[in-house]
Amino acid sequence: MKGRSAVDIAAQVEIAKESTRVWTATQRVWEYKTLVKLLPDHVSRMAMVKYLIQNGYLILNKPFDEDMDCAREAPGTSDSHTSTTSAVATSPVACTASSSPQEEEETSSETPSSDERTRDSSRRSHSTPTVREAMQAGGMYGKCPPESKLLVGFKDHLIGALQVQNCQQEVDNVSRFLCYMQPEGEPNLEFLNKTTDTMGYMKALIQSGLSAATILNYWKNIIRFLEYVKGSIDINVDRVKIEKYIDYLKTMRKPVARTHSGDVCSTRYDRIVDGMPTVHECNLVLQTGNARFLDIYNRMAISKTVVSPTDKTWYRYYCEALMMLRHFQRPGAVEGMTVKEWVNRKLTDGRYLIGIKKHKTGATHVATIALTLEEEAWYQGYYEFIRPEFVRGECDSFFLSARGTKITSGSSDLNRLHESCGLKHVSRTSGQVRRAAETLVATSFTEKQKQNVAAYMCHSDLMADKHYRMPVPSTIVATAILLDTLPGDCQPPTKKQRVDAGFSENRIYYDRWRKCQYADRQEHLLSYYTYQKPSCGKMERLISKEGWTSNCPNAQDILDMWKPAVKYVIESDKHILKSCSRQKWKGLVIKSFDGQKGEGVVATTNFTKGDIVCDYHGKVITKADGETMMEELGNQACYFFFFKAGGENLCIDAQTWPCQCHPGLETFGRKINHSSKNPNIMPLSVVLRLDDEDVHTILFKATRDIKVDTELKFNYGVNRKSFRGEALDLDWLDE
Ligand SMILES: C[S@@+](CC[C@H](N)C(=O)[O-])C[C@H]1O[C@@H](n2cnc3c(N)ncnc32)[C@H](O)[C@@H]1O
């Protein structure tokens, strides 16, 4: 401007000011989408966004601030990735944010490694917030809309064709991949042409700090998705191209697989160097807590004295720990065991065998434990004296929390047990004892024995494929006995320990049996007098009629125990009406017995004399119709209840099962067995208003107090001479 006039200079200054105003107003503002187009590589784009912001630029619709923080925290990432292919970006608009990958990872049933140890450590590393944030920043956090055709089809394929019920994690992983490759619109298969971007995706996963195991899992899911696409007749795609792409993915994952093997090796190395706890060390808590455990058992089950709530919960922890540390079960099996499974335990070759269907592992077989007779008595102690006090609703789990719900974490309970035994610093997990046992098994057992151990420990399907054969009960018991030989101090207590803990030498089972017999005899005598208290003389005569020579109850004791039956106004009792209408009765379970007896009904809670226990559910028909149906059945077991009500001869047909009103539900009444000598319930005929209808109903009322684990029985009212002598061969009618 040298030599120009002052007016010219002033005019130029005005032009420059205006230009700056326009530039500031328009050129300092960037739309994030434009950056996505110009810089498809996520990490580079984030670095650019950071740079622009630092220099005073405005970026509209940029990702969340926390993502930007992550980009700032990831040094050296801006120049590590470049891509020259078509736009791939993550738009927060097109993708739905998922829950944290860590949470989902924990529910995943699919993992790339059969090695549980690696899996655990990968989850831990995955759970750090930095990983999650880095995934967000790297654009791997978004997901495609779940209703997308490709995703819906893939999910149906997993559930329908491959029978993977728990597949949401896998679908989500694929969804994240598709969203990364194509952030906007309905996902399609365009990514098959974008191998460079695919490489970018792998790099971004690595940059996020995910473990090699987790990255391999992503890759496995994507390959399975592509295989679904390749085989789908509804999707029009070049199948050769898919195959090439899959080959490319497989090549790309090789270095990650190598890293993964390295991770596994270094974990194993650490274990060798640092030492692995032995079975004995893992069992330390059982040894330390043994005296207290036996003391509680003794007070509760033998002396029948009061036990504090704290002791009761502690006793439960110990029982859970026995399953994990002595029987090498996963916490999932402890959490999943039900009352039905407990009452259906079978005595096989001197051990009690329990099968657990729900054990939270991917394995398809039943978890089994074979308890020694002593352990069975301990568990029965829990079941009989502790569990009933915690029962609130209809929860059928064997181990109940103080709130009456299913226990949520066997591992936490194990930690608490360690803590209460002063062993917090050497707290051991179920995984550690399993590993310690496996290591010993590997060195000292035969191949066949190893297979049986794999089955006993309920390995994942991956391991089970290698080792599992459907075990027969005697093999399970033999395996449990074999596992007892592993070094470790968790053997049943010695005679001295038992005596020190208050048990009488070796007579524990005999004493227990005699106590049960005495209690049964008392109950039996009481059941003769439901409403009226008898005189002492009457009771003495009744006792002498029984002809018992020893363990004979005292008449006065029985009279002291007598109490009148609870009186209900049954017809207006909401609980009874609801239970009849829904066919949901609390405190009962169906148990299968040995021999011809078949199934029966057993109490899982204590009932008081006079309680209504359940009904005999079925369709009310006439006596004549019932008899005709019965004749047609010949010698088969019948499920009819004949009765008289209001001058009518009626019958409840429970033969036609399941009933129309409760399809798929097993009802209790029809499963109750007969006893003429020792019944504990009796039928009552009432008319109840059920679902706006008056219905003739048979209810069963307790004729005496019924303890947990007692079978319900009523007198069928027939004997061997009934039916014109046709029942002469039915021995069970004499019972
Ligand atoms: C109404 S069903 C009872 C449920 C039956 N146990 C089941 O498994 O379905 C009657 C049949 O059970 C069997 N049963 C009933 N009481 C029994 C007893 N005390 N001992 C052995 N079997 C009995 C007889 O076979 C009878 O025909």
TrEMBL record:
One of its GO terms (molecular function) is DNA binding. Residues 77-101 have a biased composition (Low complexity). Residues 70-140 are annotated as: Disordered. Gene3D superfamilies: SET domain. It comes from the Eukaryota. SMART domains: SET (SM00317). SUPFAM superfamilies: DNA breaking-rejoining enzymes, SET domain. Residues 114-123 have a biased composition (Basic and acidic residues). InterPro entries: DNA_brk_join_enz, SET_dom, SET_dom_sf. Residues 586-717 form the SET domain. PANTHER family: CORE-BINDING (CB) DOMAIN-CONTAINING PROTEIN, SI:CH211-178J18.4-RELATED. This is SET domain-containing protein.
